[in-house]
Structure formats: C-alpha cells, structure tokens
Amino acid sequence: MNRKALVIEDDPEIGKLVRLHLMDIQCDADVETDGARGIERFRTGNYDLVVLDLMLPGLDGLGVCKQIRALPGYVPILILTAKSTELDRVLGLEMGADDYLTKPFSVREFVARIKALFRRVEALDTRSGVDEEQIIERGTLVIEPAKRRVHIGQREITLTAKEFDLLLHFARSPGKVYNRVQLLDQVWGYNHEGYEHTVNSHINRLRAKIESDPSKPEYVITVWGVGYKFNDELEDGR
Q1: Which residues contact 216 (CB under 8 A, 6 or more apart)?
Q2: Do 28 and 116 fall within a single domain?
Q3: Is pLDDT above 50 for 183?
Q4: One domain, residues 179 and 76
Q5: What is the pLDDT of residues 97-147, one digit of tens each?
Q6: Residue range 16-64, pLDDT digits in tens
Q7: Distance between CA 11 and CA 193 in Å, rounded?
Q8: What is the pLDDT of the chain when averaged over all its residues?
Q9: How far apart are CA 33 and CA 95, in angstroms?
Q10: How confident is the model at residue 129, as a pLDDT?
Q11: Where does a domain end: 73, 101, 126?
Q12: Quick one: 70 and 142 in the same domain?
C-alpha cells in the first residue's frame, strides 16, 4: 500500500521534483506552496510524512511545524531549507522536526532520509511488549517511552524527537559504548560519511538539557577515542 506525503514548498519546481522522487519510492504526494494552506491540507488529509520548506510566504516553516506538532498523532517531518546556519537547523529540530536537509541536496540522500523516517515509524508501530513500554528510572532521571516524556526529579525536560530517541537508545543499554557511525545507523536510520557531526551536535544539546553540568555529564558519558555510553553506575530509581 502506498504511503502519502504532504510537500509544503513555495518553489513549484522543487515541489514537483520532490513529488517525483517520492513517487519513485511508492509514496504519493500532495504539494502546497503556502504555509497556512499546508496546515489546512494536513488537517483534512491522512498523511504519513511532511516535507516542509522553512522559507514560506505568510506562515513560515517553523510556524507550520509547531502547529502540526500541536495536533494529535505523530507524523514525521523532514525540513528542507536554504538556510545553513546551526541556529536555523536547531530551531527546526526544537519545533519538532525529525530531520533536515540543506538545499541544494542530492537525490540519493533525500531518498535515504525519507526511507529512514519510514523505517523509524514502522519500528514504532511494530514495537510491543512490556519492555518497550517500561518506564526507565536511573538516578533522578525518568523516561516514559509510551508517553515520550522525560523528567529529572520533578522537572519535565522538553526534548526534540531525535533527542528523545537518542536518550532512550542509550538508556535501554546502559554501559554499552556506541561510536558515531553506529548511532547514525541505529538512531537516525542512515549512515552517510561526514555526518558524524550530527551525532555530536545532538549529544551536546541533549546534555545541555539533562545534565546539571554538561562539561561533567552524569548520564551520557564520553568514552574517549571510542564514542558514548549511558552511565551504568547510576542506581535504578525504582
């Protein structure tokens, strides 16, 4: 059965190109060129993916992303942006986007990112059993996988989708060391040479949110020359 995507892109040529490449992987696509109309289309459609440009007339991509995330249900969002600064990428991820690509982008990478998002959704849909939903408590850190919520003590921590996935991946295997390539493959679902910096930036932002002193992390530990691990010396909080 074909999936269905909503492409919100104000450049008709890019919108057409994205639609064609989505169709190549059996994903039908509707295209909107305006943010507000894109939101209305999303509300009335049943979509499996949103491909979203940041620079839109009227309501921009960040506003669209924020509104979509305020609606019930989860649909992966891939941001396309001509902006290349770290701040712009971080803002998109903080608003709830799952991934981003900077224009111009290669077709192969675009398709790989989309396939990775679909694999992630399939994995979420097929997970079952107590272990997958079991609340994880380590020290004062509490992770609720079913609700995708994180608390440290009485304080709720707001994480992006990928930051949550990264933390949960670590916490489910305390003490296990992952290098950057393994994390790209297992958390992001793709592995492209040169994208290890994506892991670094996400871990830095995750630490800034969950660690009392990010320079001396308590939860996500650096194993120098190898990678990262979740601290296996923390007591089970239950």
Answers
A1: none
A2: yes
A3: yes
A4: no
A5: 888 888 888 899 899 889 888 887 776 665 544 455 688 998 899 999 888
A6: 999 999 999 999 999 999 999 999 999 998 999 999 998 898 899 989 9
A7: 29
A8: 85
A9: 20
A10: 46
A11: 126
A12: no
Assign residue 107 the CATH number of its domain.
3.40.50.2300
Reply yes or no on whether the pLDDT at 65 is more than 50.
yes
68: three-class secondary structure by DSSP: helix
Nearest to 133 by CA among 123, 121, 146: 146
- Under a CB-based contact definition with an 8 Å cutoff, are residues 76 and 52 in contact? no
Which residue type is seen at 172? R
- Same-domain pairing of 15 and 121: yes
Measure the CA–CA gap between 23 and 73, rounded to whole angstroms. 24
Number of domains comprising the chain: 2
Q: What is the pLDDT of residue 163?
A: 87
Same domain, 82 and 156: no
Residue 26 and residue 101 in one domain? yes
Predicted model pTM = 0.66
Residues 6+ apart with CB under 8 A from 70: none
* pLDDT in the model for residue 90: 65
At 197, the amino acid letter reads H
Do residues 66 and 180 both lie within one domain?
A: no
Half-sphere exposure for 63 (CA within 13 Å, toward CB): 12
Give the separation between CA 97 and CA 81, rounded to whole angstroms: 12
Residue 176 has pLDDT above 70, yes or no: yes
Domain range for 81: 3-126
CA dihedral of residues 84, 90, 91, 95 (deg, nearest 10): 130
The verdict on 147 and 186 lying in the same domain is: yes
Query: Is 236 part of any domain?
Result: no
- The C-alpha atoms of residue 116 and residue 100 are separated, in whole angstroms, by 12
